[in-house]
Write a structure and sequence with these properties.
Length: 379
């Protein structure tokens, strides 16, 4: 099958999932054509079935905001015509669902059929999508999608509640390739960051307010008062400066390590004892799943799709948003008992295996085939 894939190429979860999905599909023999303004950072083109079609949005003096949607729609039409795409899969509703509809209608005028699938990832619905200015376009383009998927049951419910769309939404969770996580612990790395055998807490995010990174600092402050520990931050974003200031105010900065953006966090996760994710909202929690695949229990909030990934009292603990006291107590419960921590490590890994790409990929392949067949029959 020839599959078109549209995503944002940045470090966000939607781009990672789209890229890993494309790679997995290519490994199964499908031809996958990525379309974006730059190459997705995890996309390795050393595969005969993977293709990247870049487009550029020129800077015209006439436009205060560049016409991204029009250029992307034109690229989709071009690739669909000359690469004979069977289906188009767009990730993130805004603006890709409406762009897909526009491209589909242009191709119809040329007697070319291109069904499109929209995958909802989270903030396109729960944050950006709540802006009333987007509502009519999002609802229209979702209702005209040949299929819609969401990465969690929670996100599906939020979408139906917010937009009241008539189209069916199929839940296909995010995934990881468990083969990539078969890693022996890097004790030399652990000695580098915890030379005296301190426990290591890790947080990975884009440092936006919704991630509540200040709660990570306060949890660490409570933990460090009872257990020797280090905190490793991975990522960057608008809240990073404020977080650095907070660690200095609390006199924690000597035990806090900022590593910035890292393409592959597995080496860091391999030495972690706990992963802390106190987000205000998470449609799924891909970072938590990646930690669990490295046998790292998760201390998280109970919001959005997180309870579908992190099982309370088994793979980690769930707390209410902002309940730093409860998160701290849960963290200490694990860090003070090697036996309990090891039990949670094992359960986290077992839970992560349920989200292996080999179990999730067939769900997408089945959906592609259904959409293409229905288009042939009705079309």
């Amino acid at each position: 099958m020839n599959i078109g894939m549209v995503c944002f190429p940045t470090y966000g979860g939607s781009g990672v999932v789209a890229t890993e999905l494309g790679i997995a599909l290519a490994n199964e023999g499908h031809k996958v054509h990525f379309m974006s303004y730059s190459q997705p950072f995890r996309l390795n083109l050393f595969n005969e079935n993977l293709f990247f079609h870049e487009f550029s949005v020129n800077d015209y003096p006439l436009f205060e905001y560049q016409p991204y949607e029009s250029v992307l729609a034109s690229k989709i039409v071009d690739v669909a015509m000359y690469e004979h795409l069977d289906v188009l899969h767009v990730h993130y509703a805004i603006p890709h669902a409406s762009v897909a509809y526009m491209a589909q209608q242009i191709l119809k005028s040329k007697k070319i059929s291109l069904p499109y699938i929209t995958t909802l990832h989270g903030t396109d619905i729960t944050l950006v999508g709540r802006d009333p200015a987007f509502e009519p376009v999002i609802r229209f383009s979702l209702n005209h999608s040949n299929a819609i998927t969401s990465v969690s049951e929670s996100l599906k419910k939020d979408t139906l509640k917010t937009f009241k769309i008539d189209n069916k939404i199929t839940v296909i969770p995010n995934f990881i390739n468990m083969k990539d996580y078969e890693t022996v612990k890097e004790y030399c790395v652990k000695r580098k960051y915890a030379p005296k055998g301190e426990k290591i807490l890790v947080h990975i995010s884009n440092f936006r307010k919704v991630k509540r990174v200040e709660d990570v600092v306060h949890v660490f402050d409570s933990v460090r008062k009872e257990v020797p520990a280090k905190l490793i931050f991975v990522g960057d974003g608008p809240e990073k400066t404020a977080i650095e200031q907070l660690t200095r105010q609390l006199d924690l900065h000597h035990d806090v390590i900022h590593l910035g953006k890292i393409t592959d966090p597995r080496e860091i996760l391999s030495v972690a004892d706990l992963f802390v994710l106190p987000s205000e909202t998470e449609s799924f929690g891909l970072a938590a799943l990646e930690a669990m695949a490295m046998r790292v229990p998760v201390i998280s909030t109970n919001t959005g799709g997180l309870p579908e990934v992190n099982i309370h009292g088994k793979t980690g603990f769930l707390s209410n948003i902002g309940d730093v006291k409860d998160m701290s107590e849960n963290a200490l419960k694990l860090l003070k008992s090697e036996k309990l921590l090891e039990q949670f490590r094992k359960s986290a890994f077992e839970q992560a295996q349920k989200f292996d790409v080999q179990k999730i990929l067939p769900l997408y392949e089945k959906l592609y085939n259904e959409v293409v067949l229905k288009e042939i029959v009705t079309g």
